[in-house]
């Protein structure tokens, strides 16, 4: 629950912060106002939130930050000069023109997307969590982290990185990070918060600072790690054959009637195979028919799975990131994640991995999980990459909670789950193959 002082402070700040639009027009060329609102992905917020839609606080740098009522960061108020270099013209930043950002449709919030949990073999009601849910990061209005934590927290850059790299150069950066075991999520040629977090985690793992704007350095590192980011791939008869399903129904009772929750197309399968955003795969191969065997296409070469033996997993709820550590405390891998929500938060404290299943089925039980549509009966949903838990399920010692994959990899790190830890299917697979039952999983608020 928010404290009364925070509510009063928020009410007092809202008229001041929202008195100007997120991007102020200037009659002489769309120059920004003295401050702008920047999203976690590094873009200018394209609409002005209404007073009843946000909670306003301040971060440790004294800047105002906007949260929705689930505790998700909407935007940070930053000096315009830090986003637009001095003397830059609007032509240098065409993507930031105000007209390119229509108002967000009322009622839509990408962070409201949720995934399910899988019940334990012996179905029991979900146990209460150790601590009450907090609807602000770190559980306090001053945004300060707890004074004592068992595991040091990794800090995301305060100001999102605004890269001057081309799309292919950003692809090279994402591919290099992915090969190093520091996942940027889907590779899509775009800078965003998942890339920012990966850059910080890479520094934690190696002690080196990777400059995202030094294209030559990134390309050289990429060459040494296995070659250029983009490679050629020939579509095989097996790729074209599938099996595929026509579509994935939303209703769980309809899902339960399918033989498998397979991929819906060759492009969806290939995008997941090469850790790519499906739309980006199509953009790299304009006009290509992916259903014809023998067709040569351009894909990302993500490299081999990271090797190692994980002794401890840390799930950072605030960062929406998972860290895998070796027995000596060194960082093996890091992954963007969707972790819990205000209504169904993840556990607090430390649990353990109890069992690991690849290509798992999913048992939906409305009395244990959540209410999906009008379904009020237990349903056995078949396995597949488009299943509710994707291709991997790592059951935790807290019943009904686990680490799992997802049918929507592009939303990882931007959405919430029903209390579980959700990764892309390929990240969940990599982590699962380095983990054994008994490994501890620590949740950091």
Automatic annotation (TrEMBL):
Gene3D superfamilies: L,D-transpeptidase catalytic domain-like (2.40.440.10)
Chain positions covered by the region annotation Disordered: 123-154
Pathway it works in: Cell wall biogenesis; peptidoglycan biosynthesis
Gene Ontology biological-process entries: cell wall organization; peptidoglycan-protein cross-linking; regulation of cell shape
GO molecular function terms listed in the Swiss-Prot or TrEMBL record: peptidoglycan L,D-transpeptidase activity; transferase activity
UniProt keyword terms in alphabetical order: Cell shape, Cell wall biogenesis/degradation, Peptidoglycan synthesis, Signal, Transferase
Keyword Transferase attributed: yes
Residues annotated as domain L,D-TPase catalytic: 311-444
Signal sequence range: 1-24
Name of the protein in its database record: L,D-transpeptidase
